[in-house]
Structures are given as structure tokens and as C-alpha cells.
Q: What sequence folds into this?
């Protein structure tokens, strides 16, 4: 499996979680890594991505200032730090790898199995 997510769970509003996306060095060197989320009845939404070339990062407006995407080359892992979580952040979060560093699902070719994030009191 090219990418594997972990780190989801249940958290109270205002809390934090860190998601991890493990991938091979080959994948991280050649592909942008994106985080997407999908809740029941809604389309898959791009949350954040980081480019493979220069580490440029992009965020959806809904998470700017609260989420941070980073890459640890030593651990072959991309992280999504999520702070100040809101109930509307509840969704299955997916990690994906693609040639284009954009927040559109069609730009990604390898997808993880997803991890559930639930924000509730």
C-alpha cells in the first residue's frame, strides 16, 4: 500500500489530533501528499497538501490557521496537526499521493484506507 494513515480518534471540541501518513521514500520524493476528508452525504473535500519539490503547503479556507501539514523525511511520514477542532471537522480523513499538489481529488492516484476523526462533547 503506497500510503497508510493513522492517528484518528474521538476528541472534544477545541481539542487537537495529529494524523500521520506513512509512505515510501520513493513516493515522498516524487509525489505531493494531500489530506482529504469526507463525511456522510458530502463530497470528498481537499483539506491540505504539501508538494514534493519545495515543500509548499496549501490549505482549504475552512482549516487555515488551525491545521498544519508537515513532512518528516527521516521518518518517511507526512503529518496533519489539527488544532481547535470543531464538530464540523468530523469525517473520515484520507491521505493521498499525486503528481499535482492541488486540493482536488482527481489529482491523486494513490489513496489510503482512511481514518475516522470525530469531534464531539
A:
Amino acid at each position: 500500500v503506497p500510503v497508510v494513515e493513522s492517528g484518528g480518534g474521538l476528541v472534544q471540541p477545541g481539542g487537537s489530533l495529529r494524523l500521520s501518513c506513512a509512505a515510501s521514500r520513493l513516493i515522498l520524493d516524487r509525489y505531493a501528499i494531500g489530506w482529504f476528508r469526507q463525511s456522510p452525504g458530502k463530497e470528498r473535500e481537499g483539506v491540505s497538501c504539501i508538494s514534493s519539490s519545495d515543500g509548499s503547503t496549501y490549505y482549504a479556507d475552512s482549516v487555515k490557521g488551525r491545521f498544519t501539514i508537515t513532512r518528516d523525511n527521516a521518518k518517511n511520514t507526512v503529518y496533519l496537526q489539527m488544532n481547535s477542532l470543531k464538530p464540523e471537522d468530523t469525517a473520515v480523513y484520507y491521505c493521498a499521493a499525486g503528481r499535482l499538489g492541488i486540493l482536488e481529488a482527481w489529482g491523486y492516484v494513490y489513496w489510503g484506507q482512511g481514518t475516522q476523526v470525530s469531534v464531539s462533547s
Observations:
- Residues 51 and 103 are 11 Å apart (CA to CA).
- Residues 25-30 form the longest helix (6 residues).
